[in-house]
Amino acid sequence: MRLFHETERCLKSGARGIAVLAAGALLATGLLAATAATHDADAEEAKRGGVLRFALPEEPLNLTGFKISDNGSIWAIEQICDSLIEPDDSGYGLRPALAESWTISDDGMVYEFKLREAKFSSGDPVTIDDVLFSLDQAADPEGYLGFVFPAMTREAVGEHVLRITLTEPFTPLLSVVSLFAAGIISKNVYEADPEQFGVAPVCAGPFKVESYERGSKLVLLPNEHYWDRRADGGPAAYLDRIEMLYVPETNVRMLGLKGGDYDVVNVVPLNQAKSVEADPNLTLEVSPSFRLDYVYLNHEAAPLDDKRIRLALNYAANREAILKVVYFGYGTIPNSYMPIINYHCDTVALIPYDPAKAKALVEEAGYDGTAIEVMVPSGDAPARQAAQVLQQGWEAAGLTIEIVELDVGTAYGRTEEGDFQAFVSYITSDTNDQDFLASIQADYNVFNSFFSAYKNEDVVQWLVQARQASDPAVRAELYCKAQQQTYGDGYSVPLNFKPFVNAYANYVKGFHNSVTGPWWLKDVWLDK
Predict the structure, then answer these.
(1) What does the pLDDT look like over 80-132, one tens digit per residue?
(2) Is the peptide bond before 303 cis (omega within 30 degrees of 0)?
(3) H or E element, residue 258
(4) Mind spelling out the 3-state secondary structure of 80-91?
(5) Phi and psi of 235, rounded to 5°?
(6) Of 497, 487, 500, 134, residue with least CA distance to 315
(7) What Rg value do the Cα atoms of the chain yield, rounded?
(8) What predicted TM-score, i.e. pTM, was given to this entire model?
(9) C-alpha–C-alpha distance, residues 213 and 357, integer Å
């Protein structure tokens, strides 16, 4: 889960709704187990070889999946370690990875995963013991994402079948098993030197680590033992080498792309996106994401403990201006407290920009002038600009607003401690099932509703019912009710369903940003 991450194509409501419901049905029933791994349609014309120079604003801090939470690490691990199941090319569905198939009992309580014949990058076979060990680490309650895993038992059935038995139905299990934290690692190599594993992991993904230099670069090579092969019998990865370069300075990344020093850059600043789009030698990729930019609110901090004040913040938020001025038109005004994930409800009406309504709510609440402190990460110019636009509308409604810039660590720390009122931030999801973020944000039993102190018993019960229901239509209805209620309670001030925006040279083919964040670099090839 990337609770805070820095850096859409706008999906038409009807088409996306149908696709999401279909994906939900497949996720719920396990029918995707029969789906074979797929490759790009242009695979037959793809060229092998070459070095991809990929400039990124974040570097990996550790390459042990169950120990990390930063995106720099997560997205690198996705290239190195396969889980039993992985998101498909769209990101909305799932497909087999190290599990070639799986079955689910009629009562939804027992899952059996058949392991394929696979090897680690060391050449050693992936065994059922490796799988059990890896999932034990991922599901450890003391681990970063241990809370995501439901109560269960895990056991081997022979040498090639993993059986998971739940204590109660938990429909999102397949999505949970697809998490980066559930990547299968070599038990023997990890136990021999856990610290060294964090810089030189041994996994069974399409790439392996050649070298890792903190503050500089991570170099990946194709894993010659990878289980999946192309139609020509060659490795799944087309490239000879990938250099994931840590380039935190935005202008350096962009100048390097235009000057030919980099082939791909991650996170294009939106104020430069149009210039990239106009460059005949470059391609701008704008793709959907499981991301929501918003102003986070503490429901226990006065005056935000009054629903009328929280709604006033929403009615006085000129999101159209923010979308134009801050996001340069990239994205969509949100109608939810969370990103667009499977089971997102399009029918929830937007809270409109209505300054008069906002002012009336402030007066009705008997607002006493208590200042609302809005935290903004220092150095984050778009967040500061958004806060300034909001400040104008909020003060016009009669509220007192103070914008404070804090370093990211301090701002996050205060949020986790509940020592804040409002925080301009964002949230992303690592899974394609809505239960993941919905529970984190709206169930006060989980991180106190993600440190917001939001509490609504009806919402909690709807979420419990949704995660236990096997019928996608029932789940969709429950999540829609939860979205309507939580959004209508003024949970936060949502600003933008922000897309992923990347850029690359025209000779780069097959690059695609998944909605969950990472890229399928094994599908990338160079037409030069």
Answers:
(1) 999 999 999 889 999 999 999 999 999 999 999 999 999 999 999 999 999 99
(2) yes
(3) helix 250-258
(4) HCCCCEEECCCC
(5) -60, 155
(6) 487
(7) 23
(8) 0.90
(9) 55
6 CB neighbour count, 10 Å cutoff = 16
Which among 271, 293, 267, 270 is positioned nearest to 424, based on CA atoms? 293
- What is the 8-class DSSP label of residue 163? E
**In this predicted model, what pLDDT tens digit does every residue of 462-506 receive, in sequence order?**
999 999 999 999 999 999 999 999 999 999 999 999 999 999 999
Beta bridge partners of 390: none
CB atoms within 10 A of CB 369: 8
Q: Measured in Å, how far apart are the chain's first and last C-alpha atoms? A: 37
Residues in contact with 379: Cβ distance below 8 Å, sequence separation at least 6, in sequence order: none
Per mean pLDDT, which range of 7-16, 36-45, 196-205, 258-267 is the poorest? Answer: 7-16
Beta bridge partners of 282: 505
Helices 435-442, 472-488: inter-axial angle, 10-degree rounding: 30
Q: For residues 351 and 344, give the distance between their C-alpha atoms in angstroms, rounded to a whole number.
A: 17
How far, in Å, are 122, 308, 419, 522 from residue 221 at the CA level? 13, 56, 45, 10
